[in-house]
Design a protein that fits this description.
The chain contains 8 helices and 10 strands. The protein is of the alpha+beta class. The protein has one domain. An 8-stranded antiparallel barrel has the order 1-2-3-4-10-9-8-6. A hairpin with a 2-residue loop joins strand 6 and strand 7. The N terminus and C terminus are likely disordered.
């Protein structure tokens, strides 16, 4: 018999697959219909006004997400929402590495702040890390583009852009390869291109500095979710975390119970 957790995950996926596509009712309708906001800590979907028109830099975020499988959610701000692609192997700085990127439903901009655990049985249940974040801009020829340029490039199936993040920078492109949702994320050859695998060399959250296991543990993940999160941390990180655990326990054991001492003094 399959574990109960797997049954709940399967039910969530079946429910998401059988519900009608509501995207025609609003950019975030698809995002909202897949989630129960009384259960999941994810933010409810709401639109934000056009920051592009105000000249504010556009946000991007990459969230490492261990759901049914590990992937990296690559998100670009556009017209008040975050356009989203799931990249199974994560972004690569190597221009020869063309990474599959499956387009998913747009997410609210508030999601850029989300780091934690989606409960089991909920859509996308698992641990989420803010792996990278920064600003981005579309590129048209030798100039930076605007929202209309983004619309035209997306319709054509080739979005060119630059990133300025804490881990990812330089020139990139997203190219549609099949159907409406299958794309490739490709790094251009520039000063930021490299053969370094940032998913291994820089695996921690850019917001909290935590590993996936530390995020899962702090958010009260189930044992299965904690094990899954830990498995996505690079071996060197897992070893360092395990080595530090006895020291943390020893420090905690030696720390005086100040509340008990205060009671003793008052007595």
């Amino acid at each position: 018999m399959a574990p109960v957790e797997n049954d709940r995950g399967s039910r969530a996926r079946r429910r998401a697959a059988t519900l009608p596509d509501l995207s025609r009712y609003g950019t975030l309708a698809e995002y909202n219909r897949k989630r129960h906001f009384g259960v999941t800590p994810e933010p409810a979907g709401r639109m934000r006004g056009g920051g592009e028109a105000a000249g504010r830099p556009l946000q991007f975020v990459v969230q490492k997400h261990r759901a049914s499988h590990l992937h990296y959610d690559f998100r670009l701000e556009h017209r008040g929402v975050m356009l989203s692609w799931a990249v199974p192997k994560g972004p690569s700085l190597d221009p020869s590495a063309k990474r599959l990127a499956m387009e998913t439903e747009p997410h609210p901009m508030d999601y850029n702040q989300f780091e934690g655990v989606i409960p089991e049985g909920e859509y996308g249940g698992g641990t989420v890390m803010i792996w990278d974040r920064g600003v981005w801009a579309p590129v048209v020829g030798d100039r930076l583009g605007d929202a209309d340029d983004v619309d035209r490039q997306l319709a054509k199936g080739e979005l060119k852009f630059v990133l300025l993040g804490e881990k990812l920078s330089g020139s990139w492109t997203l190219v549609r390869t099949r159907g409406e949702r299958q794309w490739l994320l490709i790094k251009h050859r520039d000063a930021h291109a490299s053969d370094e695998d940032l998913t291994v060399t820089r695996p921690r959250s850019v917001v909290s500095g935590r590993t996936m296991a530390e995020i899962a543990r702090a958010a009260g993940a189930t044992p299965r979710q904690l094990a899954q999160a830990e498995s996505t941390d690079p071996p060197a990180v897992r070893a360092a975390t395990a080595a530090a655990a006895p020291a943390r326990r020893t420090t905690a054991a030696r720390r005086p119970n100040r509340g008990r001492a205060a009671v003793s003094r008052r007595a």
